[in-house]
Here is the input.
Amino acid sequence: MKVSLEELKRFLTEQFPQGEAFGTLQALGDGWAEMRQEVDASHLRPGGTVSGPTMMALADVAMYAALLSRIGLVPLAVTTNLNINFLRKPVAHAAIRARAKLLKVGRTMGVGEVFVYSEGMEEPVAHATLTYSIPPEKYR
Here is the structure.
């Protein structure tokens, strides 16, 4: 693991301050990360369910954290693809959490998956796969 939980939290606060709106980093390991998002009325869509964009943002930032755990603090690593399947309705007003895991990391790309859970439910509410572009060494 190239970065600690505290180092990554500090980095995200300094380099990605808007990221706090997309959840908080809870745990970090080599190639994985866990995040949590409190859910309030601003995260709900008509019908009383957590909005897709809320779950997508949490999945994206969780994968960014997982990737940085492996490659170090590289601010210019960016999402090139995000595919998400919504599996079941989350509990309204219950926090959601994401567990991201890297599947493969090369010199220029990282691929991983994220399961999103609604607190109080055992089964995932969404599953996402993401690809990140990793900038060349000279741009890090």
Q: What stands out?
A: The chain has two helices and eight strands. The chain has a mean pLDDT of 94. The chain has one domain: 5-139. Residues 72 and 119 are 30 Å apart (CA to CA).
